[in-house]
Amino acid sequence: MSAAEEPVPSPTEAIPFFTPVNFILLSVFAVFLYVQLRPKAPVTLPQGPPPVVFRTFIPSTLIEFNGEGEKPCYLAVRGRVFDVTPGKSFYGPGGPYENFAGRDASRGLAFQSFDREMLTEDLKAPLDDLKDLSADQLENLQNWEERFLEKYLVVGKLVAEGDPEAPKS
Amino acid sequence: MASETPLLAKLDALIADVLADWNIYSTVIAGSIVAFLIFSFITSKDPDIHPFLLARQSTETFVRQPGESAPFRSLETPYGFPLRSGLNVRDPGTPKWSAGRKGDLRDVWKTAVRGAVNEDGSLSGKQSKIYTVLGRKAIEHSLDQITQEINVIGHHLQAAQAKTVAVCLTDSVELLASIFAGAFYGFRVVIVPHNLEPQILSTHLQKVQAEALIAEAGALDLSTVAKGNKRLSQVVWVAKLGSRHMDWNEVPADVKDTLSVTVWHELVDEKRDLAGLEVPTYDPKSPSPGMTTVWPSSSSEGKFIDFEPENLVAAIGALNSTLPGAQRFDSNDLVLSIDSLSRSYPLCQVLRALYANASVALNSVAGESVDFALATVGVSPTVIVASSRTMSDYHSKVMKPHTGLISSITHWFQARKLDAGNMPSHGLLNQVGNMGPTSELSFDKLRLICISHRCDADKDIRLTSEQLTDLRIFTGARVVYALTGPGVAGAVAQTNVFDYRRFEGASHFGSPLSSAEILLTSAADDQQDRVVEGQITAAGPAVVSGKTTLPAQGRFRQDNTLELVS
Questions:
Q1: What residues make up the domain containing A6?
Q2: Which of A25, A91, B150, B204 is 20 to 30 A removed from B100 (C-alpha atoms)?
Q3: Which part of chain B is CATH 3.40.50.980?
Q4: Secretion signal: which residues (chain A) (predicted)?
Q5: pLDDT digit string (tens) for B183-198?
Q6: A165 occurs within a structural domain
Q7: SS3 of B262, please?
Q8: What's the structural domain count of chain A?
């Protein structure tokens, strides 16, 4: 635009460089350059859920984890506490195995029975020693245990109340 | 609608007005924009590895013990899978889908001598070579010749009923031969660093109850060493090429009765025909003896680490599998170790190279602190194994001061490329960039540098991300950076070969190898979500006695890579 005002323009000087269209084009170029060459921060992924701390349970602390509401759902097999929350529809409230939630399920699994009689009702009693089980029942239990080990996490161990390993408080 | 038409018209007028100024410069600029876009589209490549794989490099187990972090494992062997425990050796004749054996050092040598295999499983007949680098000269040794030496020395020491053999040599074929002779002929090899004071060596020999000693001729005073070592009865001198004409069989008078002295090359010459060129046959199920190395600790004494063969093969297997397929050692590689074989990382890398039928170059000056430029002149390696001290010295003394203006500019562009996740190629730009710091070195074929850092080494020699980037750019090779610890064969953790990301300060050490898992123990666990910092504990098949705590504080970063703190 300003070129017209120059007194005696020579042919090359007649073409002005700083015109709006050139300015726009240069800015576009600059933006592309910046996008290509800007320092890029490495990709980050959000951290997963924090790991569960391994705990020693006694029956009266394990009973808390029966899957009601938002609580996780645990059950114990021969002293090992499994986190069965992913299978809450089976082991949680309303599921076919709900009696086992927060309990020592060893005897029930060995007998393939989900009845209340299979549980040690007295939470202060020593753990079920399973001495009276037949070979078939023990094998049954073994199979269940292996399946649990494959599918679920061991998050603690279960000891009887008053056991030297039991937590103090 | 009525108000829109004048607006559009105004806009139209404005654009027409602006475009009216279009001139030759505008065409040039528009042309360069198009050219730039086409150029960046053509040159843009997918990063070498998916960025998400670098954003979380190891898996955290879901359960942890109080006072500890959860164990971290390599992505190859996450929680629920067995850690890597061996070489997965498949003997000929075994069913195709059966799991391989763990193997031991005998399998490593047997595979090396067998030579490379074609893709269809047939032998290609291409055997690797071992070179010893002496200054600018490289001497070639064939594996058959070394098999012969293994047999001669093995027979000799077996006949002398030695159960523990101390080897005090610089990196050489004799050292390798002694290691394999131990595996085949059933004696434990103790690798003692070679530059020790006679007094310290003597105490070392006492400690390990060595019955035989293999050492460099003339490097030791036998009277001092033999004093107090009642069990020591055999000494094998290894004479250097230049001093073989001398008579090394002489024994000092005071130990003449107890010591029998022989010379390596004379022994080999003498019994060459008896021993034969065949790799000794062995029952893979029979146990092979372990190996002992010295971990240099702050006290001059050092600490003995008794590796079982299981530890070594687990480490060799893991070091191999941690590299993606195309990056693994193969028969076209020449692996040069400029770090001493008495340290487990270089040792495992060299054994792994032999197992992969790669050629190996050993350097007699190899050690923790060597001149990188001098140590690499004799050969043109594809892989270099070095220590963090060597590389850090080289970077600060040579690479940094010799970086000129042109190399700085190419460095800037190449660093951009690395940030984008691509390794710059050995191209023209690289040649220009190389005009500065590394021009005198023979790095044309170099593709990988394996650097190890002792977890209890000086803080100053920890390499920074910037230094690793400089090494990548100026040598044109990828870099892996490993953390080693006493009691862990190979390495504790190693960076991903495609991880070119740059961070402030000292570099991290990547993820644990697949042969061990790492957890951090901390006294300051007040039931917080995670223990993020603490003393490093490693457990797994590569760890002596299964589990060990390292004298170092570590931290897992947000991308689940291990770094050292304090």
A1: 2-37
A2: B150
A3: 132-307, 312-516
A4: none
A5: 999 999 999 888 778 7
A6: no
A7: strand
A8: 2
Q: Each residue of B93-150: pLDDT tens digit?
A: 788 778 888 999 999 999 999 888 887 777 887 889 999 988 888 899 999 999 999 9
Reply yes or no on domain B132-307 having CATH 3.40.50.980. yes
For residues B166 and A71, what is the distance between their CA atoms, to the nearest angstrom?
Answer: 61
Assess whether A31 and A110 both reside in one domain: no
Class of domain B312-516: alpha beta
Give the H or E element holding residue B360: strand B359-363
User: Is A21 close to B26, i.e. CB distance below 8 A?
Assistant: yes
Domain co-membership, A25 together with A65:
no
Closest residue in A to B413 (Cα) is A37
Cβ within 8 Å of residue B63, ≥6 positions away: A51, A52, A53, A54, A153, A154, A155, B70
Contact assignment for B416 to A20 by CB distance below 8 Å: no
Residue B24: closest CA among chain A residues belongs to which residue? A15
- With an 8 Å Cβ cutoff, the interface of chain B facing chain A consists of 18-19, 21-26, 29-30, 32-33, 36-37, 40, 51-52, 54-56, 60-66, 69-70, 416, 419-420, 501, 527, 529-530, 558-559
Looking at the complex, report in whole angstroms how far the Cα of residue B207 sits from the nearest Cα belonging to chain A: 41
Say yes or no for a CB contact (<8 Å) between A22 and B36: no
Instruction: For residue A127, give the nearest of A63, A53, A58 by alpha carbon.
Output: A58
Say if residue A120 is in the same domain as residue A71.
yes
Q: Do residues B61 and B79 lie in contact, with contact meaning Cβ atoms separated by under 8 Å?
A: yes
**Could you read off the pLDDT of B246-267 as tens digits, one per residue?**
787 777 777 777 788 899 999 9
Residue A125: inside a domain = yes
Given an 8 Å threshold on Cβ–Cβ distance, is B29 in contact with A44? Answer: no
A:B CB pairs within 8 Å: 88
**Is the Cβ pair A51, B60 closer than 8 Å?**
yes
Residue A169 counted as domain residue: no
Residues A153 and A73 in one domain: yes
- Pull the structure tokens for residue B302: 């050092």
Report the C-alpha gap between B132 and B172 in whole angstroms.
Answer: 6
Tell me, yes or no, whether A46 lies in a domain: no
